[in-house]
Amino acid sequence: MNNAFGKAYGKSRIINDGNAAGDILECAEGLSFWGGVDPETGRIIDVHHPNHGQLVSGKILMMPTSRGSCSGSGVLLQLSLNALAPAALVFCEHEEILTLGALVSDRIFDRPLPTIVLPKTEYERLARCNSATLSQGRLSADDFTLELDRVEPGQLCLTEKDKSVLSGEAGTANKMAMEIICLMAAVNGAVELTDVTKGHIDGCILAHSANLIFAEKLADLGARVSIPTTINAISVDRENWQSQNVPQDFGNRASRLADAYVKMGVRPVFTCAPYLLDDAPELGETIGWSESNAVIFANSVLGARSPKHPDYLDLFIAMTGRAPEAGVYTEAGRVPRTIVEVELPLDNHDDLLWPLLGWLAGRCSPNNIPVLRGLEGTNPATDDLKALCAAFGTTSGAPMLHVAGLTPEAYLPPSPDAERHVIRRSDLVAAWKELNRGDCKIDLVAIGSPHASLSEIRQIVELLAGRRCNTSTQMIITAGRDTLLAATGEGLTEKLAAAGVRLLPDLCWCSITEPIFPRHAKGLMTNSGKYAHYAHGISGRHARLAGIRDCVEAAVTGTAKAQVPGWISDRAAE
Fold it and tell me: Using an 8 Å Cβ cutoff, are 319 and 204 in contact?
C-alpha cells in the first residue's frame, strides 16, 4: 500500500514514546478495534478473527497493521482511559488508525501508549518471543535489544500560516491539532501538508465515553472547523429518541456528543453516506474524510482523494484545512498493488454479488489497493458499488480499490510486483456461508449500513407491492435526513409505514443498540456485507446476508432461505 512508508521506516522506529512491559500477543491478521475489541473488557470480539476471545489489555500487541473502521482510534482511546489498553503497539507495515488513537491518548489526555514500527525481519524476530520490555527508547526481548529511532516531524515543510498555528497564535485547540497533524505527517513520510476542501467527521457515535470526552474537551477549548464539514450517523434519532424508550442518560450523552460537533461548526446531516448528498466530492477533489465506507467510495467511485483518516484526526484536519500530503493524496499512492481476477458466476447474479466480492477482495488485499478484473461486462448501480466498498472496508485497511472498466482510475497500471489472486465461485460460496451464520427464522431485517439511498427505498416499495411485513418480523431502514425528506416528498415513507416498515434518520446499524435494536430479535437479516461482518460484535447476533429482494421476502414471510443461492453455487462447489 505504501512505498513511502517502507522507505521511511527501514529502521526500527518509535512513534509514540513511553515505557512498557508485557507478554507478547501476535495477531497474524490485522484487527479492526471498532467492532473487533470490547472497550470495556479489552477482549477481541470479532468472531471472524483468528485471535477471537483473547485479551489485548496489558500486552505487547503485534500485528502487521490494523484494518477496518476509522473508529478504531476511539476504541483504543477508551481502552486507555479505562486502563485496559495494550502495554504497547508494534507494527511492521503502514498504520494510522491506532497510531492516531495512541497520539491522542498521550498528547491530549496525558496517557502514554508506546507505538513502534519495526522492519519485517526484526518484527518476525520479536514475534517469536514470549515477552518484551520497552524502556528509554530500547526494546528488549529474550536475548536481543533494539535501539529505536524517534519519529520527529523536523523535515516537514510548513507554510507561514502552518507555523503560526503551530506556535499557538490560533489558540490552544488549533495548536494541538497542528502538532498531531505534523506527527502523522512524519509517520506517513510526508514532507509537506496539503489543503483540503471538505471534511467528514466519524467519531460521533457513543459507542463508548471517549468520543464524548474528546469532543466536549475540544469544543470547550474553542475548536471550530474551517472548511465545509459534515458529520456521520450518530447513536440516536436526534429529534425523536425521547419517545423511543431510549434510556435518558444514554440519549442525553449521545445528543451532547452530536451537539459538541455542531457547536464546532459541523453541518448536522448525520449520515454515513455523505457521497449521497448534493455536494458530493468531484473527480480529483482533495478532501479530508473519515468513516471507512465513505472514504473508499469517494476514492474508488468518485475519484476524489482522501486517506482513510482515523477518528479525531478528521476533526483536526477540518479545523486547520490541512492534511499530510501522502498516500492516496498522491498519484503514486493510488497505484494498485494487488490484482484480483474475478471468475464471475454466469447465471443471473443479483445484488448480493457486490458485498460478497468486496468482503473477499479485502481478504485478498488486506493492506494494499487492489484492482478487480473480470467485471467489465457487468453494469453495477451506484448502490452496488456502495455495497462493494463498504464490505471491502471490513476486511482491508486500504482506502480504495479499482474495478477494471468501471471505476475512474482503473487505468492506472499495477505495480510491477503486484500480488495476484483469483476469486472463484467456490470462494463466493465460502464467503456466503461465513456471512450467513444467523437463524433462518427472521425477526429483524436491517437495511441501511451504509445509509440507504433513495433508489434503494424506491426499490423496497416496489418489491413490497402492497404487502405487509410478517407479524413477527420487523423491517427497519436507516437513511440520511436528506434522503428521508426526498422519500417523504415522493410518498414513499407513507407506503412503507402502511407495510409495517420503519424508517429511522440519524442512526445507522453500526450505531444501533437496544432498545432500537429489538430486544426479542434473534434472527437478523441484512443486505449489508459490512453489517453482516460486524453484527455479532455489535448486537450479539449472527446475521444472514442477502440481496434486497430476498430481504424483502424475508420481511414478508418471516423466514430466510437456508441454502446457497443458485447463481452462486454450481453444485460442485457445495
Answer: no
Q: Write the DSSP string, 17-85.
A: ---EEEEEEE-SS---STTTB-TTT-BB--TTSTTTT-B-TTSEEE-S---S-TTHHHHHHHHHHTT-S
**How many other β-carbons are positioned within 10 Å of the β-carbon of residue 125?**
15
- Spatial CB neighbours of 421, under 8 Å, sequence gap ≥ 6: 338, 339, 340, 341, 364, 365
Contacts for 441 with CB less than 8 Å, ≥ 6 apart: 522, 523, 558, 559
Q: Is 269 exposed, middle or buried (0-12, 13-18, 19+ CB in 10 A)?
A: buried
The C-alpha cell that represents 391 in the structure block:
464490505
Residue 543 and residue 525 in contact, taking contact as beta carbons nearer than 8 Å: yes
How remote is the C-alpha of 429 from its chain's centroid?
25
Cβ neighbors of 249 (< 8 A, separation 6 or more) are: none
294 vs 171: CA distance, rounded Å: 31
Among this protein's residues, is 511 annotated catalytic?
Answer: no
Q: Around Cβ 459, how many Cβ atoms within 10 Å?
A: 18
pLDDT digit string, tens, across residues 299-323: 999 999 999 999 999 999 999 999 9
Residue 5 pLDDT exceeds 50? no
Active-site residue (options: 12, 66, 69, 73): 69
Q: Cβ distance 110 to 17 under 8 Å?
A: no
